[in-house]
Amino acid sequence: MTATSDVLDHLDTGLWTYREPLRFFGLEIGRVMVVVRLSSGGLLIYSPAELTADLRGALAELGDVRFVVPASKLHGHLYMEQYREAYPRAELLAAPGLDRRRTDLDFDGLLGGTPDPRWSADLDQTAFLGHRWLTEIEFYHRPSRTLILGDICYHVTGDAPLSTRAVARLAGMYGRLAVPPDLRRTIVNEDAARNSVRKILAWEFDRVLVGHGSVLESGGRAAVADAFDWLR
Ligand SMILES: [Fe+2]
Description:
Layout: H1 4-7, E1 9-12, E2 15-20, E3 23-24, E4 27-28, E5 31-37, E6 43-46, H2 53-62, E7 65-69, H3 80-86, E8 91-94, H4 98-101, E9 109-110, E10 123-128, E11 136-141, E12 146-148, E13 154-155, H5 162-170, E14 177-178, H6 181-185, H7 190-201, E15 207-209, H8 220-227
Parallel strand pairs: 6-7, 7-8, 8-9, 12-15
Antiparallel strand pairs: 1-2, 2-5, 3-4, 5-6, 10-11, 11-12, 13-14
The structure holds fe (ii) ion.
InterPro entries: DUF4336 (IPR025638), RibonucZ/Hydroxyglut_hydro (IPR036866)
Protein name: DUF4336 domain-containing protein
């Protein structure tokens, strides 16, 4: 049996990440799933990865999977059906628009801009608004002062493959928290987006986890403020 520590990265009290490979337009950018152990003892999975036997074993050592949440209708919903099957008692929550996209899944609820009381002791949340087709749900893990994002920022650093680093450099995204240019170009309501960033920056986070890229261990608030400087 594989030890939990071989499968998941333990970042802080009640906080783990899991990485799986992902190629996007021919570039290896990887994908990050986040596991939060709530004060109640149950687990909340953000952007679930493919549920391999190793991952399932590692999660079993941490606690019961209670909630499975995607970042948005585009990020983090691909394997939700596997969690439904493996954890019949877990609730699957839909990000805005995902319930229409995944009619094969019977969702237990919809995510919005305020946290469910069952996880609000540990996690705050807000919706990133103002994008043409995407409303992403962002979380703040209070005990570890960690901001959890999906696609609104990437963090490509030295551990990424050479070709990925080269493209990130060209796009001015290398070595820092950065909003992908395509997302930046498709903001249709700047006031709404600005307000969303303001809400995020009101949290006292230091660490930032992104859906694609490496962990930013500290200086997160300044890095987010900098990434959205063009908007503010
Ligand atoms: Fe993504």
